[in-house]
Design brief:
The protein contains six helices and 14 strands. By secondary structure, the protein is an alpha/beta fold. The chain folds into two domains: 143 residues, Rossmann fold, CATH 3.40.50.1360; 71 residues, ACT domain (Alpha-Beta Plaits, 2-Layer Sandwich). It is an enzyme of class 5 (isomerase).
């Protein structure tokens, strides 16, 4: 009888422990879910503000890539339908192209429209000088080409991407697009003594991340703030490097959706 009671007590304690553990996991899940919902709403706020403030009738618009741009295309399509706007869209990636087509917007390219009125795109991180880290999704080269063809380049992001200096929020490094045959030589040059470590960006299946241009992505993990213009130039001078995810002196305004439901803007001092 004592043994039975003892076992019953043990099982009760175990059940209580498991119940508490389950409650903690549930609370963590709920907290994470709430944070995710808040971030998505913040993305939407930033995207809508940028489209409303920068898109006008008879414009050619560069459409960026990533999760935040989905909301920008939603808003752009709404305005085109409601206001009967004549808008031509130039995509920065396969994803952007599909979004444009799915929303029934007019699709074009840089062959037909090499000069854009405005380009709107997301970012992985934005510092106080509007220097950006982009390309976490592997679209950096086409994103930079389209941004460079625009009279105005506007960035949209949620509060998590807002930093005083690059590296505060984004810890995955700066994406570098390289020719496949050159990824080992480029990696070795970047990882020379005095440089920070690099890592080859891997996909879920443990293969290299391949861009829309059929190139590979390397991530350069830096340890401290740099002269980003010099870093960008130095990396691009390495044979085999196609482009970097550093956007220096390109953006003129950034919109950040904030946790409290407001939209924060940041303008470049010199453009």
């Amino acid at each position: 009888m004592i043994v039975v009671v003892g076992r019953w007590v043990c099982r009760t304690k175990l059940a209580g422990f498991l119940s508490a553990e389950t409650s903690v996991k549930h609370a963590c899940f709920q907290s994470h879910r709430a944070a995710s919902i808040m971030a998505e709403e913040a993305k939407k706020l930033a995207a809508y503000a940028a489209v409303d403030n920068h898109v006008q009738n008879n414009q050619v618009v560069g459409v960026g890539s990533g999760s935040t741009i989905v909301y920008a295309v939603d808003r752009l399509a709404d305005r085109v339908r409601q206001e009967k706007l004549n808008i031509i869209c130039v995509p920065t990636s396969f994803q952007a192209r599909q979004l444009i087509l799915q929303h029934g917007l007019t699709l074009s390219d840089l062959d037909r429209h090499p000069e854009l009125d405005v380009a709107i795109d997301g970012a992985d991180e934005v510092d106080d000088d509007l220097t950006l880290i982009k390309g976490g999704g592997g679209c950096l080269t086409q994103e930079k080409i389209v941004a460079g063809c625009a009279k105005h380049f506007v960035v949209i992001a949620d509060f998590r991407k807002d930093s005083k200096a690059l590296g505060e929020q984004w810890k995955k490094g700066i994406p570098i697009e390289v020719i496949p045959m050159a990824y080992v030589p480029v990696s070795r040059m970047i990882a020379r003594p005095g440089n920070s470590l690099y890592s080859l960006c891997l996909s879920v299946c443990q293969g290299p991340v391949v861009t829309d241009n059929s190139n590979f992505i390397l991530d350069w993990k830096f340890e401290q703030a740099q002269n980003w213009k010099e870093v960008n130039t130095a990396i691009k001078m390495i044979p085999g490097v196609v482009e970097t995810g550093l956007f220096v002196g390109m953006a003129e305004r950034a919109y950040f959706g904030m946790e409290d439901g407001s939209v924060k803007t940041r303008n470049t001092t010199v453009h």
